[in-house]
Amino acid sequence: MLTGHAPDDLDKALAACAKGDRTALRGIFDREAGRLVAVAERIVRRRDLAEEVVQDAFIRIWTHAHQYDPTRGSARGWIYAIVRNRALNLLRDGKREHTVEEVDALRESEQVNEVIAAWRKLDRNSLLHDCLGALDETKRHGILMAYVGGYSHGEIAGRLRIPLGTAKSWIRRGLASLRECMA
To answer: Where is the RNA polymerase sigma factor 70 region 4 type domain (predicted)?
Structure first.
C-alpha cells in the first residue's frame, strides 16, 4: 500500500487501518518501524525496550486509527507522537525505571572511566596535563567527554546530570581557561 512515499500515503494508510485493513498497518510498519525504534531508543536508551515501545505503539495505532484527524496535523506526526508518548510512559512507569537506571549507571561509569583513563595517559610533565589538572573536576570531565569521548553537549549534560546550558557554559569556560593556561 505504501509503495510511493508521498506525505498523504500515511494519511491513506491510517484511514485504511481505521476500516480494519491489516495490510495498511503492515505498510506503515514496513515504512516507519526502523525510524520509530531509533526515536524510542533515544528516549529509553535500550534497544529491547525501544522495540517493545514500538510494538505497543503499533497496537495503539491499530486500535486508535479512527481518531486520527488530518486537519489537526500530519499522519507522520501523529504516529511519532504515539511512539514518543509510549516511550515516555515506559520511563515514568515504575516497572522499568530501575532497570534503565542500573544499565545507564553501568554504561556511564564505564564511559567516564575511559575518559579519565585518557587523561591519565597524558604525559604528566606536559602542559596540557597540568592545565587540565588545574580545572574543576566536573569541567575537566565535560571537556574530556566532548573532545576525547566525542559526546555532544546534550549527552554530557545528561551524563553529568546538569542542565544543557550549564554543560555548555562549563565547557566554554573550561576551554577558555585551557587556552589561557596553555598560552
So the answer is: 128-178
